[in-house]
Amino acid sequence: MLKIVAEYIYEYEAEIAKGLLESEGIDAMVSNVNSPYPGVLLGKHGVQLLVNDYDLESAQMILENARNAEPADPTEPADEA
Hints:
By secondary structure, this protein is α+β, with helices and mostly antiparallel strands. 32% of the residues lie in helices and 21% in strands.
């Protein structure tokens, strides 16, 4: 069964999150894309990111970690391994 893991105003935001989840091995699907009122009333018209119910907790943690991650400072040199 699919569960809503997140809702977004714009489709591109959901697609980015979907790509992040898929890169971690979690199947995801974007829904409610063709809403005539994107983002006006989240929960009714927001773009939804769906995952299987057994992946819900992992997907929530991945998205939360991504939200809390500090953006890279473009003035800092990249670490070289």
